[in-house]
Write the structure tokens for this entry.
Amino acid sequence: MTESQFLRNVELTLGQIESAIDDARIAAECSVSAFVLTIEFDDGARIVVNAQTPMRQLWLASRSGGIHFGFDGTRWCDLRSGEEFFVALSRVVSEELGQNVVLRPR
């Protein structure tokens, strides 16, 4: 995948994350700057999703640790477990809020 293709995929995914957070109507705000998306919760906790362009990866960082995702041509998957990105993000957001949250891309 070229760098421009990678960055297009990242930009699309970050937009999908923002929409999914808005659709879920949870107590969190999203901000995006330079291919870094930050989800900030009312208690000050943060989840950060950022592009790692040289490695063509998307990284998710939270209190519970970091997860690295690679793009398989159709979706982002955890490089260790194979877990799909939005499944992992739903799990991490659910852990943060202490309630079940399901996030889906539009």
Observations:
- The longest helix spans residues 3-24.
- The chain has a mean pLDDT of 96.
- The first strand starts at residue 28 and ends at 33.
- DSSP finds two helices and six strands in the chain.
